Amino acid sequence: MMVNAGVQSQDDPILLAHAETDAFLREVTEQIDLDTFDPDDGEILQRLVECLGDTRGMTRLRFAETLAEIGEASTPFLLDGLANHANPVVRRAAAKTLTLIADPTAVPHLIHALLNDEDTVVKGSSIGALARIGEPSVQALLDILASKDVPESTIGHAAWALAFIGAEAKEYLYQAIASDSPVVRSAVVGAIAKVAQEEPKAELFEILVKSLTDVDVDVRCEAAAALGNLAYKPAIPNLIELLDTGDGETRRAAALSLMKVGDRSAIEPLQTALAKESEVAIQGVIKLAISQIK
Questions:
Q1: Alpha-carbon distance 157 to 145, whole Å?
Q2: Angle at the Cα of 228 (from 224 to 229), degrees rounded to 5?
Q3: Side-chain half-sphere of 109: how many Cα atoms within 13 Å?
């Protein structure tokens, strides 16, 4: 015997739950449109956050956009969801919604989620929110970079966020380039390179060129890569000097940077370096640089 499809849909608990959720969203949206929504109604805000766990991606997006439209009144409820909800889907969506709101008061909570949540998507969404918030996040990101107790993946996230923030972080970067931590200095070089792309100022390039002589190989290589990507010709003599350094990674980075700068004045020094180079892999890089410049 055939069951009527309409009756079946009415009895399906998932479809009923979806219908109830959709009706709730319509009601809140209408209140916002009519300017009758009460941002002090904690029960409604809590329910909106709970709906970030809906199984339908587009519905989650609509709830996130609605919470973002409500603004900073949503922040405490989103932070509670980020910190305490058992469902990782809600925690992920809460962090993504905080990205849309960009409330500076969320920074310590997002840092906590980045460092402590077991879900990698929550961590990634938290760093996205920190980057979007901008300057208020910078000191906390520098503190993470200076820490010896965080995994490489978190260091990478923090360095990316710092570069994303870019010019907003400029004053912090000028101070942090003198940090005792090579991880901080390396991340700062990457961020300064991003700022120099947007604002090609002499003092920024001076920091990058000076970083070519940093005691740490990673900082030197980061600076060389940055100057190559920026095709900064005044750095050519400094990069040529690095072709004669005792560290292979630095010589390799210098050759690649000279290749990207692409000035023919580097050909002869590269040929000299090739004649002295003992590592086969670096010989290959130098040959590639010469051929590309030619």
A1: 10
A2: 120
A3: 22
DSSP structure class, residue 73: G
Query: What would you report as the CA-atom Rg of the chain, rounded to the nearest whole angstrom?
Result: 26
Does the pTM of the predicted model rise above 0.90?
no
Distance CA 75, CA 103 (A): 7
Determine the Cα angle at 239 with ends 238 and 245, to 5°. 95
The 10s digit of each residue's pLDDT in 41-85 is: 999 999 999 999 999 999 999 999 999 999 999 999 999 999 999
Q: Which residues of 217-256 are buried (b: 16+ CB within 10 A; e: fewer)?
A: bbbbbbbbbbbbebebeebbebbbebbebeeeebbbbbbb
- Per-residue pLDDT reduced to its tens digit, 19-37: 999 999 999 999 999 999 9
Residues 57, 59: Cα–Cα separation, whole Å: 5
Structure tokens at 38: 């009460």
What's the token pair of residue 170? 């400029």
